[in-house]
Amino acid sequence: MKSEINIKQIAYLSGYSKSTVSKALNNSKEVSEKTKFKIRKIADTYNYKPNSSAKALKSKKAHTIGLIIPEFSKTQYAHLMEGIEEEAVRKKYRLAVYQSKNNLWQKRRSIRMFFDGSIDGLIIVTNERFASSCEIDYVNQILEDSLPSIKINFSDWLHNNGSPNTTKNMGKEVFKKLVKML
Fold first, then answer.
1. Does position 39 have pLDDT exceeding 80, yes or no?
2. CA 30 to CA 20: how far, in whole Å?
3. pLDDT tens, 137-150?
4. Which domains are assigned to the chain?
5. CB neighbours of 168 closer than 8 A, spacing ≥ 6?
6. Which residue range or ranges hold the HTH lacI-type domain (predicted)?
7. Residue 149 and residue 124: Cα distance in Å, rounded?
């Protein structure tokens, strides 16, 4: 019977220390191929899955990007999000998405939710036609004082470029730009 197992249990079963097990599972050159094989066999047998929260704590990287968009239901935002998500998956990042509904309170709430270390960077999509100067000032302040982030004025961009393919490609490029900032 297969069950979930942790590094401590693999160490016990293999006879190696937790440190050696961790190094073997992370393919460290400090561990022999014979030891890696033995440890990986136990890990595979018991369906070992690394704890992504523990890895994030150790590396100080969550491998997650936050995305705040005005609406999920609008096609143009869906194309943009699709491009961002494709690039995130390709670069082994997760995407945490919130919608602001063009509402300052909702956008502030979404931004605050990300300040717990759960993301490495933030993409904020705004529709400036509906944004007040107060909202723009608030978002700009957050972007200046916090984690790496990019703000997209989507209404201006959409007016000039609008096709689904260019919108999707824009999402990919924005994601690449943000990852370079990390």
1. yes
2. 9
3. 666 666 666 678 88
4. 7-50 (no CATH), 59-181 (3.40.50.2300)
5. 79, 80, 82, 83, 86
6. 5-59
7. 8
